Amino acid sequence: MDPEQWLAQYDKRLTEIAKRAKEAGERVREAGGTASSPRGEVEVRVGASGVLEDLTLTPDARTLESQDLARLILDTTRKARQAVSARIAGISTAYLGEGPALDVIKQHLPAPVAARTEPDDDDYFANPEITR
């Protein structure tokens, strides 16, 4: 292969890579995650960076105690962040494939949401907390 052909193929390859990178970047910027609370009192949307962009509370949210509502908002936001993390990981995997670069991206994504269990009344009586 002569140098001009090689250079033309190399230029074509770089153009394709740049196009794919631009598309992946746009998909990441547009990525967002939404989540709703189990009973639907809270719905959130987060952007690609995990920042809360929208919060919707239904009238049922007014029946909750303030600390319960706050916890529900935080838990729902964590779920939305996990959803956007999964999207970004998918986009990155499609663009980069498995490997060290993808591992670095995954290290900076939020950790999976731990399942939160509601305290049981029986648990309270078995393990009462003394507060002052």
From TrEMBL:
Is the DNA-binding keyword given for this protein?
yes
User: Would you tell me the protein name for this molecule?
Assistant: DNA-binding protein YbaB
Per its UniProt record, what InterPro entries does this chain match? YbaB-like_sf, YbaB/EbfC
Q: Where is this region: Disordered?
A: 113-132
Record has DNA damage as a keyword: no
Q: Cite the Pfam families for this sequence.
A: YbaB_DNA_bd (PF02575)
One GO term in the molecular function aspect is: DNA binding
Listed A to Z, the keywords are: DNA-binding
Q: Which organism is it from?
A: Actinophytocola algeriensis
Q: Which Gene3D superfamilies match?
A: Nucleoid-associated protein YbaB-like domain
